[in-house]
Amino acid sequence: MSTLLQVVEACGIIAFACSGFVEARRKDMDLVGVFIVAFVTAFGGGTLRDMLLDRRPLFWVEHQEYAILVFVLALLAGPFLPHLRSAVAEKTIVVADALGLGLFSAVGTSLALEAQMPVFICVMMGVTTGIFGGVLRDVLCNEIPMVFRREQLYATCSLLGCAVYMVLEWLDMTSAVALISSILVTSVLRLLAVKMNWRLPG
Amino acid sequence: MSTLLQVVEACGIIAFACSGFVEARRKDMDLVGVFIVAFVTAFGGGTLRDMLLDRRPLFWVEHQEYAILVFVLALLAGPFLPHLRSAVAEKTIVVADALGLGLFSAVGTSLALEAQMPVFICVMMGVTTGIFGGVLRDVLCNEIPMVFRREQLYATCSLLGCAVYMVLEWLDMTSAVALISSILVTSVLRLLAVKMNWRLPG
Amino acid sequence: MSTLLQVVEACGIIAFACSGFVEARRKDMDLVGVFIVAFVTAFGGGTLRDMLLDRRPLFWVEHQEYAILVFVLALLAGPFLPHLRSAVAEKTIVVADALGLGLFSAVGTSLALEAQMPVFICVMMGVTTGIFGGVLRDVLCNEIPMVFRREQLYATCSLLGCAVYMVLEWLDMTSAVALISSILVTSVLRLLAVKMNWRLPG
C-alpha cells in the first residue's frame, strides 16, 4: 500500500515535471529555464502549502533524489522531448497528471488536517497542493494560469476529491480509505472532464 | 471601537475581493480563477507579511469565515457582478478600498512593531500588507502591477499613513490613537488622490 | 577579509538594484514601482532562500540600512539614471553584478550547508540566492525571466561556483578558501560568458 502510493507519487512528479518541460520548451527556454520551470511545477504546490503551514523540512529537501530526478529529466528533455509528442505519450501524461493531481490534493488535505486546520482551510490546502505548481509554472512562463481559464475542469476535481476526504474522515473512516477514495474521485473526475470536455461557467 | 475596526476590516476585505472579481472577469476567468484571484487580492498582503515575519497562524486560517465569505461572494459574482457596474457601486468600492488600504497598512505596521522590527522595516511591512494583495492579483492576471504604474497615488498614501503611525507611537500616544490616525491619513489621502488625480513622477 | 566581503556585498546589492532600476524605468514605472522592483531584485533571492530554510531574521530586516540605501538610490535614480547610460557605467554594472552573483551564490550555499541540507540542495540554495532576485524582477515586470532565456550563461556560472564550494568543503578546506574560490569561479565565468557570448543549448 505504501509502495503503491510511492509509485503514484513518482508518476505524479514526473507528469507534473513533463508539463513544465513542454511549457518551457514552447517558450524556447534554455536548460536552466527548463529545469527550474519543471521543478517549480512539480514541487511548487507542496512547497507553498508547507510555507503556509510552517512545516519543515520541505518534501524535496528531505528527498533530494526527487530534485535530482527532475534535473536528470531536464537534461534528457532536450534531445528526447520532441520524440515524446506522440498520441500515446500525450495520453500517458494526461493519466499520470490526473493521478498526481489526486495524490497531491489528498496528501495536502491530510497534512492540513494533521496540523489541526479548520475544515475549509484543509480543503483549500489540498487544492493548493494539487494546482499551485501549475499556477507558478504559468506565472514564470508569463501566461495567465491555465487552471484559471475556462479549460476542462481541473481545480474543481481536486476540490471535490478533497471534500470527499474530509467527509470520510468525519465519518471516522481510516486514513487509508479516505486517501484512496479521495485520489480516485479526483483522478476519475479529471479524466472524465477531459473525455467529456466539462468546463465551468464564468 | 473594536467592533468598528471589525466592520472596517470586513469592508476592506470585500472591497479588495471585488477588485479581484473585476480583474478576473476582465480576463474571462472561470469560477476557480475568480475565487483564487479575489482571495489572493484580499489576503495576499497580510499573508506575505506574516511569512516574512514568521507569524502563525495566518489571519485567514484563524478566521476561516472570511475565506468562506470570499468563496460565497465568488459564487455570486458571476450572476451579480454585471449589475454592480453602476457609478454608485464604483464609488462605494473606491471608498471601501481606501478604508481597507488604511486599515491593512496600519495593522501591518503595528504587527511589525510588536515583533520589534526596526523603524524602516515597520513602515515597509505596513505598505506590504496594504498593497501586495493587489500586486499578486496583477501578477496572476499577467499584468504589470497597477501600483507600480503612474496611476493615482496608492502606495504613497499607505507609506505616509504608516509613517504617521510610527511618529505617534514614538510620541507615546496610545495604540488606538495611532491606529485611527494612520487609517484616516491613508484613506483620506487616497480619496484625495483619486479626486484630484495626483500622480508620482517617474 | 570580512571588510572585503562587506564591500563586495554592497557592490552586489547596488548592482542588482541598478538592474531593477533599469528594468522598472523601461516599463515606465513610477517611484514606488522603481523602489519595489529594485528591492526585490536585490533581496528577493536571499529572502526566498531564508523562507525555504526557515531562517530568521531576514538579512534586510537585520540590516535596515541596506533597505534604506535602496530607497535613497530609487529617489536618485529618476534624475540621475539617464546620465548613467554610458559605456563605462554599463561595464561597471556588469562587473559588479558578476561579483554580486558570485558572493550571493557562495553565501547561499554556505548557509544551506550550515543548516545541514543535503549536497544537491545546498547547490540549489546557492543558485536560488544568486538568481531569484532577477527572476522575481522579471515576473513583476511581466517578462519571461531573463535567466531562463537563451542569453549568455548566468545561472550556470552560479551552479559551477556553488559546486566548487561543495567540493572544497568536502576536501576539508577552510570556509574562507571555499568562499573566495567559489566567488572567483562564478564571477570570472560570468565575465567570460559575457565576453565570449557563451550560451546554453535549448
From TrEMBL, chains A, B, C:
It is a multi-pass membrane protein. Its main location: membrane. Pfam families: Gly_transporter (PF03458). It comes from the Bacteria. Residues 7-77, 95-168 form the Glycine transporter domain. It is found in: Cell membrane. Keywords: Cell membrane, Membrane, Transmembrane, Transmembrane helix. The chain crosses the membrane at residues 6-24, 31-52, 64-81, 93-112, 118-140, 152-168, 174-193. This is Trimeric intracellular cation channel family protein.
